[in-house]
Amino acid sequence: MCFNAAMFKPLPLFIGLRYTRARRRNHFISFHSLVSFLGIALGVVALITVISVMNGFEKELRQRILGVISHATVSGGPAGLPDWQDLVRRLEREAGVLGAAPFIRGEGMLSNGARVAGTVLRGVLPAAERRISDLEDKMLVGRLEDLRPGLFGIVLGSELALMLGVDVGDKITLIVPQASVTPVGVFPRMRRFTVTGIFEVGMYEYDSAFALVHLQDAARLFRLGDRVSGVRLRLADLFQAPRLAQRLSLQLPPGVRVRDWTQQHVNFFRAVKMEKTVMFVILMLIVAVAAFNLVSTLVMMVTDKNGDIAILRTLGLSPAAVLAIFLIQGGLIGLVGVALGAAGGVALAQNIEVVVPAIERLLDIRFLAPDVYYISELPSDLRWPDVWRITVIAFGLCLVATLYPAWRAARTRPVEALRYE
């Protein structure tokens, strides 16, 4: 007599779902199934949340860096760029370019009495700087418009001002690595500047070594005349910067170099990407451990259902159908666990700004103290491609974990299984 499969179609799906819903005779198996299910869910929650927080930190750092540097830079050689006004107008007509502004870059040493600090000096046009950077929004004291030609005003980073012990209105001396020849000898070029503003980007690299002066003052200081070091660009889509830089390199005259922000900070963003990849692999191992707990769960379940499997085999159920039954059962446990974990991870990642402060108030601690860290709040940037990648890989691990128990169930011999029944 063969089993009438027409009554239940598809038969493996029906039996697999029934085994999943059925109350276990062995309560330890039920507990083990619950642990496997919760382990998968918690692993997926942790992975989605951590990756979203790392995305948030990467986005925050990118915004802070790109608030100071440009999306792309067109620069000449050591002699600078002549006729930069025509170049600026030409670049602003390029598709995808929101703004262009000239700059002069140099290095020097600032001193205030016995305090001395090195600096990277940038000459800017305050009105044009607004179009290509967010420095105006980062000003703690003063404004960029306070930089006026001929007055030799200077805007300092907050850490640089702190090292020099100066505030707005104070005088400091700038020494540049160029010599002035006088009848009594050769002396370094020096100039007194008045502090007109202080900014804070939130990146120590810039806050501790960055200073702004007016473009004309910088040209006089470095003896560039009507030339500038280059032109900085702000783009509509910063991720198109490499493509635009390549296109401009082919259009502009020889000797003019075009660099985009990915080249200027390639090591930093490569390190962030590598850190995210390593963290993804480490946390995915947690999901893998939870997924492979299904192996022991399903092995015990196969042992518990050994007699039922043997009876089904004697009624005509094929080994492939038995294999499918336990694949469906393990896959369903993994699917529900992954789905619950994905829902919890998305909810937590989208509300991390609310959850973390609540935990800090409850425990009376501060995870990121503002006097130590520039970024004192946990940012989160949930990206759906990451969510789909995590859920697909986690579910795939669950399916792989069910293969051995299902294969073992398919190899059950009815005679040996029913011998002691």
Q: What does it look like?
A:
This protein is of the alpha+beta class. The protein has 2 domains: 204 residues, no CATH class; 194 residues, no CATH class. It has a 6-stranded mixed beta barrel, surrounded by 4 helices. Strand 2 and strand 3 form a beta hairpin. The radius of gyration is 33 Å and the shape is elongated. The two termini are 20 Å apart.
User: Any idea what the radius of gyration is?
Assistant: 33 Å
Task: Name the helix and strand elements from N-terminus to C-terminus, one letter apiece.
Answer: HHEHEEHEEHEEHEHEHEHHHHHHH
Main pleated sheet? 6 strands, mixed, barrel
What structural class do the secondary elements suggest?
A: alpha+beta
Shape: elongated
Roughly how many Å apart are the termini? 20 Å
How many domains comprise the coordinates?
Answer: 2
Q: How helical, in percent, are the residues?
A: 40-55%
Number of strands: 10
Q: What's the tally of helices?
A: 15
Mean pLDDT: 80
The portion of residues forming beta strands comes to 15-25%
Low-confidence stretches: 1-9
- State the strand order across the main sheet: 2-3-8-5-7-6
